[in-house]
Write a structure and sequence with these properties.
Layout: H1 8-20, H2 23-30, H3 34-48, E1 53-56, E2 59-62, H4 64-95, E3 97-102, H5 104-109, H6 111-121, E4 126-131, H7 134-142, E5 148-151, E6 160-174, E7 187-188, H8 189-194, E8 198-200, H9 205-216, E9 226-228, H10 231-239, E10 245-248, H11 249-258, E11 262-264, E12 266-267, E13 272-280, H12 289-300
Parallel strand pairs: 3-4, 3-5, 7-12, 8-9
Antiparallel strand pairs: 1-2, 5-13, 6-10, 6-11, 6-13
C-alpha cells in the first residue's frame, strides 16, 4: 500500500458498488457518470495496491480482497461520519457561546450596553465576560482563552488583530478642596507630570495612555503617590484628598456632575485615546464575536466626541 490516503468519496463509491452490484447504479447514486466512476475506482485500486472488483457483462462483483476491504471501508466511512458530526456539534456549541474579556473602563461603563444590544441580536448565545486590565486582556486573547477582547491602550500588540470601536477622553480630577480645583488657568502638562498622582496599576490602559501622552510631550511622569487596581478605588482616594488622578471621563462623569470631584483642564496634553476590539492575529473574526464588535462600533459612533483636555 502506498503512503497516500484514499479519497473518502472513492471509498464511498466502492461501498455503493458492493451494495448494488453495479458501477452504473453506484455512479447514479453519486450523481456522476459511469465513466467517471470507473476512473475513480481504478484510482482507488492503485492507491490500495490490491484488486477490488471484477467487471463482467452481467455486473460487478468483489474480489476476495475486495470483500475484506469493503468491511474496512464501511468502518472508515462510519468513523469519518462520526468525526464530521462531532466537529459540527463543536461548531454549534462554539457559535452558541461567546467568551469576552474587557479592560475595566470598557467593562464597567460600555460593555453593559453593548451586551444588552447583543442579547437582542443573538438571544440564544451565552456570553461570559472576564474583566482585567488591558495587558491581561491582550494575554487572554493571545492565549485563545477568549474569543474577543476590548482594550483601552493606545497601542495594540503586534500579534493581535484590532479594530477601533470608539474613542475615550482621559481627564484630570481632584477633590473639591484641592488647590487645582480653584485654578482659573489650565494646569501645565509639565506640572501634571511632576505631581505624584493616584494611578492605576501597570498594565492598565488608563495608565499606559497617560504615560504615552506625557512622553509625546517630552514629559516624564513622577513616581506615583499611590497605585490602585480599580477605577473605584482611585476615585475614593482622590475624593479623600490624597492626590489628583487621571481617569476616563466615562468613569468620573457621575462624581463630577455631583460635585464630589472636580474636572481640571490641562494645557499642552492630548488625552484622547482609542478603544479597540482585539482578537488573535491572522485570523478572521468569526461569529458571534463579529456581531458584538459591529454593535460596539455602532454604539461607539453615538458617544459624545472626545475633546482634548
Amino acid at each position: 500500500m502506498s503512503g497516500t490516503w484514499p479519497d473518502l468519496r472513492n471509498l464511498e463509491l466502492f461501498v455503493l458498488v458492493a451494495e448494488h452490484g453495479s458501477v452504473g447504479k453506484a455512479a447514479a447514486r453519486h450523481r456522476i457518470t459511469q465513466a467517471s466512476a470507473s476512473r475513480r475506482l481504478d484510482t482507488l485500486e492503485r492507491e490500495l495496491g490490491v484488486p477490488l472488483l471484477v467487471r463482467t457483462h452481467t455486473g460487478t462483483t468483489l474480489t476476495d480482497q475486495g470483500k475484506v476491504v469493503v468491511d474496512w471501508a464501511r468502518a472508515t466511512l462510519t468513523a469519518a461520519g462520526d468525526l464530521m458530526a462531532g466537529v459540527s456539534a463543536l461548531r454549534r456549541e462554539r457559535a452558541a457561546s461567546l467568551r469576552v474579556a474587557a479592560s475595566m473602563t470598557v467593562a464597567e461603563y460600555l460593555m453593559p450596553g453593548w451586551l444588552m444590544a447583543f442579547r437582542r441580536a443573538c438571544p440564544d448565545v451565552e456570553v461570559s465576560l472576564r474583566v482585567a486590565n488591558s495587558d491581561a486582556v491582550g494575554e487572554m486573547v493571545g492565549d485563545d482563552d477568549v474569543d474577543v477582547g476590548f482594550v483601552e491602550s493606545p497601542t495594540v500588540a503586534t500579534h493581535l488583530s484590532s479594530r477601533r470601536v470608539a474613542s475615550d477622553r482621559l481627564v484630570v480630577v481632584v477633590a473639591p478642596g484641592h488647590r487645582w480645583a480653584r485654578r482659573r488657568a489650565p494646569v501645565p502638562a509639565g506640572e501634571l507630570a511632576a505631581t505624584p498622582l493616584v494611578v492605576r496599576e501597570p498594565g492598565s490602559g488608563t495608565r499606559t495612555a497617560l504615560e504615552q501622552a506625557l512622553r509625546r510631550g517630552a514629559h516624564r511622569m513622577a513616581a506615583p503617590l499611590l497605585e490602585l487596581s480599580s477605577n473605584a478605588a482611585v476615585k475614593v482616594a482622590v475624593e479623600a484628598g490624597t492626590a489628583p488622578a487621571v481617569l476616563s471621563d466615562l468613569a468620573v462623569a457621575g462624581e463630577v456632575r455631583d460635585g464630589r470631584l472636580r474636572d481640571v483642564s490641562v494645557d499642552g496634553l492630548e488625552l484622547t485615546r482609542p478603544l479597540h476590539a482585539v482578537w488573535p492575529g491572522r485570523r478572521r473574526l468569526a461569529e458571534p464575536a463579529a456581531t458584538l464588535v459591529r454593535l460596539s462600533e455602532r454604539a461607539g459612533a453615538t458617544l459624545p466626541p472626545a475633546q482634548p483636555s
